[in-house]
């Protein structure tokens, strides 16, 4: 029985978090600047879906993974 140690190690690591924000700037190299919800910062992500500026989007692992619904941002502290 062969075992791939890299795959076993990778399975232990958590997935990258899914962030939401608004696409604010489009760049010619296929990336976009995304303003995170709640004013938590800016990030530059791959925009392979070619979402337009002003569109809300999900971002995971440095790439836009899809459009997000236009809902109000609510922060709940426990």
Question: Could you explain the architecture of this structure?
Answer:
The chain has 78 residues and is mainly beta. The protein has a domain at 14-67: OB fold (Dihydrolipoamide Acetyltransferase, E2P) (Beta Barrel), CATH 2.40.50. 10% of the residues lie in helices and 38% in strands. The protein has 1 helix and 5 strands. The chain has one helix at residues 5-12, and strands spanning 18-26, 31-36, 42-46, 56-60, 63-67. Strands 3-2-1-4-5 form a 5-stranded antiparallel sheet, with no helix packed on it. A hairpin with a 5-residue loop joins strand 2 (31-36) and strand 3 (42-46). The protein starts with a helix and ends in an 11-residue tail after the last strand.
């Amino acid at each position: 029985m062969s075992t791939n140690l890299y795959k076993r190690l990778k399975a232990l690591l958590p997935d990258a978090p899914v962030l939401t924000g608004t696409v604010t700037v489009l760049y010619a190299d296929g990336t976009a600047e995304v303003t995170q919800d709640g004013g938590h910062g800016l990030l530059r992500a791959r925009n392979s879906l070619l979402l337009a500026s002003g569109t809300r989007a999900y971002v995971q692992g440095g790439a836009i993974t899809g459009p997000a619904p236009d809902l109000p941002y609510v922060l709940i502290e426990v």
